[in-house]
User: Fold this.
Amino acid sequence: MANEFPDATVTGIDMSPVFPTTIIPANCRFLQHNILEPLPFPDNSFDYVHQRLLVAGLKPRDWVCVVQELERVLKPGGWVELVEVDGHGGNNGPMTQQLWDWIELTLKGRGINVNIGTQPGLANLMEQAGLVNIKQEVFNLPTGLYGGKIGTLLKENEQAFWIAMTPTVIHGTGIDVQEYENAIITSAAEVEIHKSYHTFYSACGQKRTCPSPLMPEPEPDFGEKSPVSPIPAPLSPRPTFVRSNIK
Ligand SMILES: C[S@@+](CC[C@H](N)C(=O)[O-])C[C@H]1O[C@@H](n2cnc3c(N)ncnc32)[C@H](O)[C@@H]1O
Assistant:
């Protein structure tokens, strides 16, 4: 990141200052900023923008503005990548399902759509923001020890999310705190029995290099040419998506 960029602006709510303090690459700086406000960067600043797991923080109308803002700070020809998770999981046991229903009800009361990955979908949001060469991938990840290291981490993450959401869910649904906490405990065993999983959505889109949609878009150079929806050439080593067939 260039030195002329400003220091952090802290203007938002529900934002956590969870930045690493060690092992920071030399060209990396952390800013805390409310994404509902214009980013403190000029137009056409970055080759690549990544945003992940804002599903519980943004309302549908915010999504459109946020992706437009990400597009604004991209250089022409630059790429944006969005990654989101479903709001309910799959192969749920009864208590796990109950937890996700409470979460969905709570967030719905705040105007948040937990199914942004499918309605309207990340690719659709990118299209509305004027991005091109959009490619979306959908994959399932296991939630439980049965899924090895990834499953163990995702289960820990899920449990931490539910615990962190306790006051919000109690307030949003009116349920008893003991009932909610018992459901979290029961779910820890349920996810192993039912082999629960989450569906993740990952989409990449490119900023136009031409000023007008009427002008022909140059073919992107992906190295290996593919006839349909080519995967963008990575700017740095790109993780291989794990595809599981948990159903
Ligand atoms: C589920 S966490 C994901 C964190 C990180 N992106 C990751 O993938 O590990 C959601 C994050 O969104 C942040 N958040 C919520 N609303 C926000 C907003 N309006 N502007 C910026 N960040 C926001 C929260 O502080 C929280 O750190």
Remarks:
- Residues 46-206 form a domain with the Rossmann fold fold (CATH 3.40.50).
- The two ends are 42 Å apart (CA to CA).
